[in-house]
C-alpha cells in the first residue's frame, strides 16, 4: 500500500498554490483516507465543484461562507462540515484562515508523482 | 446511508469526556470517513491502542508527545501524523490543545444511538 510518512511537519511541508489566495499542504494519507490543509487569504475562493469522495472538514481559523448543495452558511473557527459524495460545494473566505479537509477514499490526484513513501 | 448533518457548529455540539483531561466532539461522518475533535488538558493521555481504521490527524493547538509503532516524536500546532491500520499509537499532552482526527472508514462506535441523520 502507498502511504505518507507517519509524521508531517508544517515547516517541512511544501505549500502548493491551488487558486488565487489559496494554498494547500498534503498531509497524511493512504488508500482509505487523506488529510489536507487549505490556507485562504481573505477573498480566496474554493470554486463550486464535486467529487466522488466523501469529505469532512474543520475550520482551523478564519471565517468562511460555505455552500453545500445550494445551502449557504457562515462558519467560523471550531465549526465543521460534511460533503456527501458528488454534492456540489464551494466557499468564499470572509476572514483569512485555514480549512482542514479529510477525504475518504484518498484523493490521489493531490499526491505528487515523487510523493514520500512509508518510512519511520 | 447514515450520515451526519451537513454543518457542525462548535457551540451546538456536545463534548464527551473520554479520559482524564480528554474530551471529544464528533463532527461529520458517513460510512467512508469521520472527523473528530479531541481536546486535551496538559497531562491528558491518549492511552496506547490500535484499530483497523486508517487515521490522519492534525494538531490544531498545543504540544503533544506522540507514539506510533514505538516511535516517539514531539508535534506542535500545524503538524500532523498518519496511523496505519492496527498500528499501536498514543499520546501525552505537553501543552493544552486539540487534535483533529479523521478516520477511514467511520468509527461507528463514536456515534450515539440517537445520532443526527442527514438533514439540510
Poorly predicted sequence stretches spanning 5 or more consecutive residues of chain A: 116-120
CATH fold descriptor of chain A: Jelly Rolls
DSSP summary, beta strand count of chain A: 9
* Most extensive interface, chain pair and sizes: A-B, 49 and 49 residues
Q: Assembly type of the shown chains? A: homodimer
**Count of discrete structural domains of chain A:** 1
Report on this model:
2 copies of one chain form a homodimer. Chain A has a single domain, classed as Jelly Rolls (Sandwich). In chain A, 0% of the residues lie in helices and 56% in strands. The first copy, chain A, is built from no helices and 9 strands. In chain A, strands 2, 3, 4, 5, 6, 7, 8 and 9 form an 8-stranded antiparallel beta sheet that branches. Chain A starts with 6 loop residues before the first strand and ends in a 16-residue tail after the last strand. At the A-B interface, strand 1, strand 3, strand 4, strand 6 and strand 7 of A face strand 1, strand 3, strand 4, strand 6 and strand 7 of B.
Note the topology.
2 copies of one chain form a homodimer.
Chain A: E1 7-8, E2 16-19, E3 22-29, E4 34-40, E5 45-49, E6 54-68, E7 71-76, E8 80-83, E9 89-104
Amino acid at each position: 500500500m502507498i502511504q505518507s510518512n507517519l509524521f508531517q511537519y508544517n515547516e517541512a511541508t511544501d505549500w502548493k498554490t491551488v487558486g488565487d489566495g489559496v494554498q494547500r499542504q498534503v498531509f497524511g494519507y493512504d488508500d482509505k483516507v487523506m488529510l489536507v490543509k487549505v490556507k485562504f487569504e481573505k477573498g480566496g475562493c474554493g470554486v463550486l465543484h464535486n467529487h466522488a469522495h466523501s469529505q469532512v472538514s474543520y475550520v482551523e481559523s478564519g471565517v468562511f461562507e460555505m455552500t453545500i448543495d445550494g445551502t449557504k452558511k457562515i462558519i467560523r473557527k471550531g465549526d465543521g462540515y460534511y460533503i456527501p459524495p458528488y454534492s456540489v460545494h464551494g466557499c468564499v473566505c470572509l476572514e483569512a484562515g485555514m480549512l482542514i479537509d479529510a477525504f475518504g477514499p484518498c484523493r490521489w490526484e493531490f499526491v505528487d508523482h515523487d510523493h514520500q513513501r512509508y518510512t519511520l
